């Protein structure tokens, strides 16, 4: 990197308390995603028992809860893949979310041939609870931006609520659901051979280790910034290095590299390397938004752990395992 580097201490330290991702479902409990290419039949009904005391339920259908215990409100969401974008329209992976606004009188959701329905505790009546409103939105799964479907009745409050809920955890979940029918799996690890160009001392990019993972981007000031995430892959290394590199996708004539932020969580001291004049503030702004998307350190710790598994395999295969016992010294 040719840019100028300076060290900055973040005003907001990393929160290590409760850094496990809140509300995350264990993987094993997720029902298999529906095959979108297959016509749906009665057998394709998928039910989710509702639990109003949880902040969110992430399954094949999604339930997001808010409000006091006496009256919990819910956004019930069915997830559909959006039509594949044209190759160069600048948009990332997208999903269509069918949203019902219900409350804690509903006890179950059913996603079936007739669409998404909510049911109360009176099964002999067999009726769907009337919902307060229903709307459909198109979401860019890289930026988390919502594009309203103009053909539906607007619900500004519901859409605003949904927009606030679209953090990294929910975007990752929706992404996993929509890419599964295409045979993509964000947990599929690249082959060790495909990364044999890596050598000790270098970081590994998360998207190189997990090629089907969701790409991260942030949109503000009319521009889209795509963020790559690289981790130190040596399990025993004390450097904790994590580099976020940023590309301005609206650069002309081509996407333009903005610079990188080097972190060593949980240290609040970061290194900024800006390629352009006056990009330091931009990089700090993107780091801030990145941290809002993933509060706490849970995701970063988990992703470094996953990269380190690949690091161990690479070292074992190509360095005779020598680095497993001798980690690089911590960088100052
Ligand atoms: Zn390291």
Structural notes for this entry:
- This protein is an alpha+beta fold and 332 residues long.
- The chain folds into two domains: 156 residues, no CATH class; 142 residues, no CATH class.
- The protein is 20% helix and 29% strand.
- Strands 1, 11, 12, 13, 14, 15 and 16 form a seven-stranded antiparallel beta sheet that branches.
- About 8% of the residues have low confidence.
- The structure holds zinc ion.
- Zinc ion binds next to loops.
- The site of zinc ion has 6 residues, from loops.
Summarize this entry quickly:
By secondary structure, this protein is an alpha+beta fold.
Largest sheet, in brief, is: 7 strands, antiparallel
Would you tell me the structural class of the helices and strands? alpha+beta
Please give the count of helices: 6
SSE series? EEEEEEEEEEHHEHEEEEEHHH
Helical content, roughly? 10-25%
Using only CA atoms, what is the Rg?
22 Å
Average pLDDT metric: 83
Layout of strands and helices, then pairs:
Blueprint: E1 4-9, E2 46-49, E3 56-58, E4 62-66, E5 73-81, E6 94-103, E7 108-112, E8 115-119, E9 133-140, E10 146-148, H1 156-165, H2 168-179, E11 204-205, H3 206-209, E12 216-220, E13 223-231, E14 242-248, E15 256-263, E16 269-274, H4 280-293, H5 298-318, H6 322-325
The structure holds zinc ion (ZN).
The site of zinc ion (ZN) has 6 residues, from loops.
